[in-house]
Write a structure and sequence with these properties.
Length: 136
């Protein structure tokens, strides 16, 4: 059985060169996994739905991200600019977590290459984490 791995090209959001977060690591990891034949193909996630995000976040916060209306302090706490590619990445990466969870239930194991973000709370992001999603 091939390890089910979730990845999406949009995990690598467009950031300014002065941003501290190493966003290019997601594309590099995908290349290494393919090159070393750890995976042949990735499972491609869909953006996480607002309904699913509401399991962990307030609708107000979700809409502020979606509509790019979060205040400057909130954006500063996240550490990413609130631009289209970051918003898309936030929904896609969380969708990847949901997909990896479903794959793990089916195959016994799965990975999302954009997993690991855990600093957000129900109504704000922090530490380069816009959304988090815990499935228990």
């Amino acid at each position: 059985m091939e390890l089910p791995v979730v990845n999406h090209k949009d995990y690598e959001a467009q950031l300014n060169d002065d941003n501290k977060f190493p966003i290019k690591k997601f594309g590099e990891l995908a290349k290494v996994l393919i090159k070393n034949k750890i995976v042949k193909n990735f499972y491609i996630p869909e953006p996480c739905s607002v309904e699913t995000l509401k399991e962990a976040h307030t609708e107000d916060y979700i809409n502020k991200i979606k509509n790019k209306t979060l205040d400057k302090n909130g954006i500063r706490k996240i550490g990413f600019p609130l631009v289209d590619s970051v918003v898309r990445r936030s929904f896609i990466a969380t969708g990847g977590t949901v997909l990896a969870t479903k794959l793990a239930l089916n195959y016994g194991i799965a990975c999302n290459t954009a997993g690991g973000s855990h600093h957000a709370t129900s109504n704000e992001g922090a530490g380069f984490c816009v959304y988090q999603f815990h499935l228990c």
